[in-house]
Design goal:
Helices cover 39% and strands 14% of the residues. The chain folds into two domains: 145 residues, Alpha-Beta Complex (Aspartate Aminotransferase, domain 1); 237 residues, Type I PLP-dependent aspartate aminotransferase-like (Major domain) (Aspartate Aminotransferase, domain 2), CATH 3.40.640. The chain has a seven-stranded mixed β-sheet with strand order 2-8-7-6-5-3-4. The chain has a four-stranded antiparallel β-sheet with strand order 9-10-13-12, with helices on one face. Helix 3 packs across helix 10 and helix 12 crosses helix 14. It is an alpha/beta fold and 413 residues long.
């Protein structure tokens, strides 16, 4: 009989990631997670058995094409896309967002309003801001500097019938806050606008459901979610069809997703991404999950969330006790609403010096603005070198957090 809250078998989990060992504590997972053996095995298999161009009539090319299509369908299932041709893949979230906004540029009319937040990674701001060259009016939905939340009432004051796009993050890569994107989508759609969501900091910790998000566009990077340095952009089919082609002149606007993938996808990395779903289904099944592949993936992510909340609260409990520490974001993981990405500063201490200290003990954390430079500037944190950021994943252990706390205690006055 399945227990109500099955626990992760960390020994089995960690064995899936060849880079994990007892010497190094990887706590920079928001920068890039460790890679599954299953992913690497698939990349290797493709390169050694299927490295041919697609579209030919001979058997090897047909087989390679079947693998790449299966990979796209696997990603569609992973994110709950209604149609697999809505799945656009590319080298990174940043590049996909710049490609996407380049396709949107010809549709922009002078006076169209675009809202971005000042909590986002620059990859979900920069491309949209360039649309000002076509006459778009840019507005910024600013974080409340006291609560460190994006207030929906503030958004309401920014939305007008001229709002065409709102771009926001599903979870902040500094604050760790999970934002209410479905509620935002309702508000944006009510005025006739569309919503673009960056889920890079969210997808490693929750099972993505693009339909439930309410978003019109949704993107994240696989290298933050146990896969290769690769990314996905999903969009509603009718929206993607309405955009001009970014590909060769003979690739028409009806050819999805190829028209938004100039040069085509990376075949071996696409195939490698199937290993992510394989892993999640396997973990969910081992935990007693049943039903569809996504049901079993949800069982896995439910267990990930419980484990990560425990790790996060273990660190936050220590930080809350240090009077010199300012936690940048929610100071508890007990009530949900955050992912295990914890940022903080220490009064009178440069963030770099704390990280340099933990470097000596093979503990991987980091400091800086993490390309959320507008947020760090708004909070006045640049003079300290930005924040210290500890970002956990489900394969981290309580012992690693305790080890980190021991060495933080040596560096924090």
């Amino acid at each position: 009989m399945q227990t109500a809250n099955p626990k992760l078998d960390l020994a089995h989990i960690r064995a899936e990631f060849p880079a994990l060992n007892d010497e190094v504590a990887f706590l920079d997972n928001a920068g890039g997670s460790q890679v599954l053996r299953r992913v690497a095995d698939r990349v290797r298999d493709y390169l050694l058995t299927s490295a041919v161009q697609l579209g030919a009539s001979y058997a090897q090319s047909q087989d390679a094409g079947s693998k790449v299509l299966a990979a796209r369908r696997s990603v569609a299932e992973l994110i709950n896309a209604p149609f697999d041709d809505e799945v656009v893949m590319g080298s990174s979230t940043t590049s996909l967002m710049f490609q996407l906004t380049s396709a949107i540029l010809p549709t922009v009319q002078p006076g169209d309003e675009i809202i971005v937040t000042n909590t986002d990674h620059e990859s979900n701001i920069g491309g949209w801001m360039r649309l000002a060259s076509a006459g778009a009016v840019l507005k910024v939905w600013e974080v409340d500097t006291e609560t460190l939340q994006l207030d929906l009432a503030t958004l309401d004051t920014l939305l007008t019938p001229r709002t065409k796009w709102v771009a926001m993050t599903h979870a902040s890569n500094i604050l760790g806050t999970v934002n209410p994107v479905a509620q935002v989508a309702e508000r944006v759609h009510a005025v006739g606008g569309r919503l673009c969501v960056d889920a890079v900091a969210y997808a490693p910790h929750r099972l993505v459901d693009v339909q439930a998000s309410g978003a019109d566009l949704y993107a994240y990077s696989f290298y933050k979610v146990f896969g290769p340095h690769y990314a996905v952009l999903w969009g509603k089919r009718e929206l993607l069809l309405s955009l001009p082609s970014l590909n060769h002149y003979f690739i028409g606007p009806e050819v999805l997703p190829y028209k938004l993938q100039p040069g085509n996808v990376n075949y071996e990395l696409s195939y490698g991404c199937m290993g992510i779903s394989d892993y999640l289904i396997d973990v969910g099944t081992r935990l007693g999950g049943t039903g569809s592949a996504r049901c079993r993936m949800q069982t896995a992510f439910d267990a990930f969330e419980r484990h990560e909340d425990m790790l996060c609260e273990r660190l936050l409990a220590y930080l809350r006790e240090r009077k010199s520490v300012r936690i940048i974001g929610m100071d508890s993981a007990l009530h949900g609403g955050r992912v295990p990405t914890v940022s903080f500063t220490v009064a009178g201490v440069q963030s770099e010096s704390i990280v340099r200290h933990t470097d000596r003990f093979q503990i991987g954390i980091r400091f800086g603005d993490f390309y959320a430079k507008r947020l760090v500037d708004r909070l006045g944190l640049q003079p300290q070198g930005g924040v210290v950021r500890v970002s956990m994943a489900h394969y981290n252990t309580p012992e690693e957090i305790d080890r980190l706390v021991t060495h933080l205690d040596e560096a924090i006055p």
